[in-house]
Amino acid sequence: MTGSVPVVRTVSGLRAAVKAWRAAGESVALVPTMGALHEGHLTLVRLAKEKCARVVVSIFVNPAQFAPHEDFDRYPRDEAGDLAKLADIGCDLVWGPDRGEMYPEGFATRIVPGGAAEGLESDFRPHFFGGVATVCCKLFTQVLPDIAVFGEKDYQQLCVVRRLVRDLDLPLEIVGAPTVREADGLAMSSRNAYLTPEQRRIAPTLHKAIANAAAAVSSGAAPEAAAMEARGQILAAGFDKVDYVEVRDAGTLAPATTGTGRPLRVLAAACLGKTRLIDNIAA
Amino acid sequence: MTGSVPVVRTVSGLRAAVKAWRAAGESVALVPTMGALHEGHLTLVRLAKEKCARVVVSIFVNPAQFAPHEDFDRYPRDEAGDLAKLADIGCDLVWGPDRGEMYPEGFATRIVPGGAAEGLESDFRPHFFGGVATVCCKLFTQVLPDIAVFGEKDYQQLCVVRRLVRDLDLPLEIVGAPTVREADGLAMSSRNAYLTPEQRRIAPTLHKAIANAAAAVSSGAAPEAAAMEARGQILAAGFDKVDYVEVRDAGTLAPATTGTGRPLRVLAAACLGKTRLIDNIAA
After folding, report:
1. B155 and B65, same structural domain?
2. Which of B177, B212, B247 is the last residue before a domain boundary?
3. Residue B163 to residue A109, Cβ atoms within 8 A
4. Among candidate residues A127, A153, A177, the one where a domain is terminated
5. Beta strands, E only, chain A
6. Residues B12, B38: Cα–Cα separation, whole Å
7. Total tally of structural domains belonging to chain B
8. A199 and A127, same structural domain?
């Protein structure tokens, strides 16, 4: 049994709380989420707690990173459940602004990330990383944390956010945390809640296929051949569509060139019905 | 006779200096400039010194806000002269990064301001406010000042920067300072150095024409009629081209609607040969 966790709804309330911690000399971590928290998120919070005295978790579902046809309206929301989980693991503060506090009337600024933001997810969700970069920049300047923790599950997002922080000289460090998986290998994701039992049975193939591709590339297979093999495995298992399987430079996300000794990453996105899953793994 | 002013060339050096001031409880002001300092800039620095214990002046000539055909290469530069002036008026630190420190290899992030950034200057310099917003965001996160002081001479820029700071929750206040003018009314500008003696004689008409328009609008004239009259006066005086004379809402820069009681602003841009001058005034 633990108590409750305080929730702030305004930037001024947030800053007052952080200011009090700073006055006491305490370090501050931010874990940006869109709520609907699962064990993957809680792992990020635990990592944040190891690194800083205070942990803020944001649970804002950011409309700017959804296209009109995407699942903003049906995206899972369970604030009461989220708050109970966060209280249990000792989160210090929940940042839960409404849409008007985050994007007030007259809001007119977009951040357009290039580099690692190009291709992969952007080929299928062209609006996505602009929305992510804009809200992350805002979250960082609202909280001004020492670190922010992001999951490697959204690996391209992690690369984009690292670039954003470097390019805009935002005064924090980005910490990436390994993907948390179900026992059968499926990466934890709020969107897994959309899966039917039959789709849930098929879903772990995404992980298996990219793990096979990573092993093949590590053993000297050509990246494109390994990626094509993985695409076939994913479709054969019953996925309805493969958006991409790609082997990329793990830092810049540029197309992989073998023999350079630079770390590589296999990234994939595929659909089961209307549910789109992504995953990635080191090669 | 005064001593010299310290110049820092790296973000880490800048942050170390600011951190020492913060540890001593001192407030910090930033005055962003592109060097080539004249009395207008020095007025901004004096205002900054009245408001904060410490003043940083940046003198980075930002390539991102010049188009390829514009005057980046011939933009006036006189760092030794700038440093002497800044030492004389008690500037605490000059922030003078080189291009590689400001835009390191792989730089891939653009800020796209909307709202007040639309129209006026953007119709003639479409790249301009994106470059301004990106570098200002960087300057603000590099220095993290309490305030930043901008001249009203670049009035649309002032509106864009205010919106940028609000939209991205940048933790500082923007202070606008009145335009400093020569005895004949010409707004001080680094680009006045380009004018021939004959052009310099004609130049003050820009101010006179918009002052006439502002007086007419204040007396009940229709904004569009007053603006058209001003365009005629500017051309009649010998300007080669009028880019615009517009009466706008002083806060949002939306087209003026009379009878609302909201403050208005007359803004203009016009060319003498290759030299483009801008000016504005409250109506």
Report:
1. yes
2. B177
3. yes
4. A177
5. 7-8, 28-32, 54-58, 93-95, 109-113, 147-151, 173-177, 241-249, 264-272, 275-282
6. 29
7. 2
8. no
Range of the domain at A72: 7-177
Q: Is residue B89 part of a domain?
A: yes
pLDDT at B1 (0 to 100): 46
pLDDT of A43-85, one tens digit each? 999 999 999 999 999 999 999 999 999 989 999 999 999 999 9
Residue B216 C-alpha, separation from nearest chain A C-alpha, in angstroms: 30
Residue in chain B lying closest to A129 (CA) = B109
Contacts of A219 (CB under 8 A, 6+ apart): none
- Residue B259 confidence (pLDDT) above 80: no
Whether A235 is in a domain gets the answer: yes
- The CATH number given to whatever domain includes residue B78 is 3.40.50.620
Does A164 contact B at CB distance below 8 Å? yes
Specify the CATH number for the domain of residue B245: 3.30.1300.10
Q: Does A109 touch chain B (CB under 8 A)?
A: yes
Q: In chain B, which residues have their Cβ closer than 8 Å to the Cβ of A163?
A: 106, 108-109
A169 touching B, CB under 8 A? yes
Residues 132-161 of B with CB under 8 A from A: 133, 137-138, 141-142, 144
How many CA within 13 A on the CB side of residue B162? 19
- Prediction ipTM score: 0.94
Which residues of A does the annotation mark as catalytic? Answer: 41
Which has the closest alpha carbon to A109: B163, B66, B247? B163
Q: Which whole number is the average pLDDT over A201-209? A: 98
* Predicted TM-score of the model (pTM): 0.95
Same domain, B246 and B139: no
DSSP β-bridge partners for residue A241? A271
Active site residue B38: no
A19 Cβ under 8 Å from any chain B Cβ: no
